[in-house]
Design goal:
With 581 residues, the protein is mainly α. It has a domain of 43 residues. 67% of the residues lie in helices and 3% in strands. It has 32 helices and 4 strands. It has a two-stranded antiparallel sheet. The chain has a two-stranded antiparallel ribbon with strand order 3-4. Strand 3 and strand 4 form a beta hairpin. It is elongated. The termini are far apart. The structure holds one DNA strand of 10 nucleotides.
Length: 581
DNA sequence: CTAGGGTTAG
């Protein structure tokens, strides 16, 4: 089996192509071909071949390989086809391997599929390298299921660790982390040798599915096998622990690392952001700057998201300025996060300014801006923007976009429009409404005090209502003074989450409105008996650019009550339900 | 031939 290393070992006499001469083969191989104009190389070589020059096979192979890795992988394919048709080369396992890795980088699977049938015809599917390239080609072209079919129907003994690793990576890329985890299990069951790439992929799968057990197992395997915690491994571990809600474990991995690159730092910062520890996220960003590690766009995007969720406008502005100084923030993800930050912090003008300045807009840009208008009470503008999005038609709305649209209708009291968009969501865009969308609709009807309609809507839902849906209905009951029905609804919430604090409180509030103090007491006593402790309501406030975090009922904060009153005035969103007790 | 972090959410 030919490999690249064999090629670079090969040395030969000087030879020439056209009028350019090279001292030896090795020199050609070390030419950074992507730096030359890639288009000229096949042209140059084609001319040489047509004029009857014989080129050594290793050179041809190396050029094919470079082209397949270059910016225009299809050049590799056209050159290969020329070589074949001029009788220069017959397709063997090596050239087929190169061709397949070129097609893996094409947007369409069609050429790759043609090569697949060629592979079968030539009887090369039992070659492990060719097989793996084939699997990789289907995985990269977003056909992970077909890739799996290739693996499952491969001849006995042809598959190896890389084949399985490629399958797992393909599932992850295709947004199928459960399948990835399953494949990892099968791999272990069939006693395929696991390596560090396997564990790395399995860690990603564990994180995305929230399967701590498997994540821990992988971590244990890493330690037991003495696998070095590289930046790759470390960032995967950190991200896995963070996604499973174990911030401390993530931090332990982070602190214990011998060397960390920007990805490790970003993994930890984004872990904090995802877990709602915004202050820690920002602090770690500071530590990162102190340590001299340069942030990149991924870091900025997650830090800005933390600022947005804290409502820290000054801090957000600082990070924005940091971007300009360090030449960062050119990527859309950062601009989108800035739009979100400015609109969540109330500077909707600045948010819209950034949005308007975008030369390219993805679904995040539109959705963030729509949601930004909605939460700032500019429901009309939110809906106008959605109309503009549909009119331009370059970006398809997704489920979250419709959450923004429905929220706008709900906040604006636009019932007919709400129904209209709710229907269009599935009819026009083939998006199945999720429980969140049903929640929006109940909220829409409840806010308009259309209690009977809201109730009917819940009854006709194809999914079981969750706590949020019931809570929306409960608020509607309260607004309509329907105490009896409110009791029923509060009981449903309690039923869904008997161990949680909230349901008990809601029910006891309902009792309190009808002065049923005996029932209130009974409920409170049972709560104490169950040692039910509430999650403290937590808020942030920025004073002179400094972010203070405080908890409801936090005695250490002397000004808690005062700040709470300020918050009530600033942003109704910050008022956690448990603060009201 | 395979590998890590990032933006929207009732």
């Amino acid at each position: 089996m030919s490999t690249t290393s064999q090629i670079s070992v090969e040395k030969s006499k000087p030879f020439s192509i056209a009028k350019r001469s090279f001292p030896e083969n090795k020199c050609i191989l070390s030419i950074p071909i992507p730096r030359l104009s890639q288009c000229h190389i096949p042209l140059l070589l084609s001319r040489a071949i047509v004029s009857g020059l014989f080129l050594k096979l290793p050179l041809v192979h190396s050029v094919l390989r470079s082209l397949s890795l270059g910016p225009v992988p299809s050049l590799s394919l056209s050159f290969l086809s020329l070589l074949r048709h001029s009788g220069y080369l017959t397709l063997d396992n090596y050239s087929l391997n190169i061709a397949l890795s070129a097609t893996a980088r094409l947007p369409s699977v069609s050429v790759g599929a043609q090569l697949h049938s060629l592979t079968v015809k030539l009887g090369l599917v039992s070659d492990t390298f060719v097989l793996n390239s084939l699997i990789n080609m289907y995985s990269s072209c977003s056909y992970p299921t077909t890739a799996r079919l290739v693996l499952d129907s491969a001849p006995q003994g042809a598959c190896d660790t890389v084949s399985w690793n490629t399958i797992i990576a393909g599932y992850l890329r295709g947004g199928m982390p459960n399948k990835a985890l399953q494949a990892f299990g099968q791999m272990a069951k069939e006693q395929v040798r696991l390596d560090d790439v396997t564990l790395l992929n399995a860690l990603v799968a564990s994180g995305r599915t929230g399967t701590v057990m498997v994540g821990r197992l992988c971590h244990a395997l890493v330690i037991l096998n003495g696998i070095q915690i590289s930046s790759y491994m470390g960032s995967s571990l950190i991200s896995m622990y963070a996604k499973c809600g174990l911030a401390e474990n993530a931090r332990k991995v982070f602190d214990g690392m011998y060397e960390r690159n920007v990805v490790c730092w970003t993994s930890m910062i984004s872990g904090y952001t995802q877990l709602g520890s915004f202050k820690e996220a920002v602090e770690l960003f500071r530590d990162m700057q102190i340590s001299g590690m340069k942030a990149d766009d991924a870091t900025i995007a997650t830090v800005v998201s933390s600022c947005a969720q804290m409502g820290a406008l000054d801090l957000g502005r600082y990070v924005h300025a940091y971007c300009d100084v360090h030449g960062l923030g050119k990527e859309l993800a950062v601009k989108n996060s800035l739009i979100d930050m400015y609109s969540k912090c109330g500077d909707i003008k600045k948010a819209y300014e950034i949005f308007c300045g975008l030369t390219k807009r993805d679904v995040f840009s539109w959705t963030t801006m729509i949601m930004g208008f909605a939460v700032n009470g500019l429901c009309g503008q939110a809906l106008d923007l959605f109309a503009q999005m549909e009119e331009e038609g370059e970006v398809m709305p997704n489920e979250v976009t419709f959450l923004g649209v429905l929220t706008s209708c709900s906040h604006g009291g636009l019932i007919e429009q709400g129904y209209h968009h709710f229907q269009r969501m599935s009819m026009v865009y083939n998006l199945a409404p999720r429980i969140e969308h049903y929640g929006c609709m109940v909220d829409l009807l409840g806010r308009a005090k259309l209690l009977a309609l809201a109730e009917q809507f819940i009854k006709e839902m194809p999914i079981a209502p969750d706590v949020v849906v019931w809570r929306s209905l409960l608020f509607a009951c309260r607004a309509c003074g329907e105490v009896g029905y409110a009791e029923y609804v509060a009981e449903r919430i309690l039923e869904l989450e008997p161990k949680k604090f909230e349901g008990h409180v809601l029910l006891s509030n309902v009792y309190a409105t009808t002065s049923r103090w005996v029932d209130v007491n009974k409920l409170r006593t049972s709560m104490d008996g169950n040692r039910m402790s509430k999650q403290p309501g937590c808020s942030f406030i920025e004073v002179d650019g400094c972010v203070h975090e405080f908890f409801a009922g936090d005695e250490s904060h002397v000004e808690t009550e005062a700040i709470y009153n300020i918050l009530l005035g600033i942003n109704e969103l910050l008022v956690a339900e448990s603060l009201l007790i």
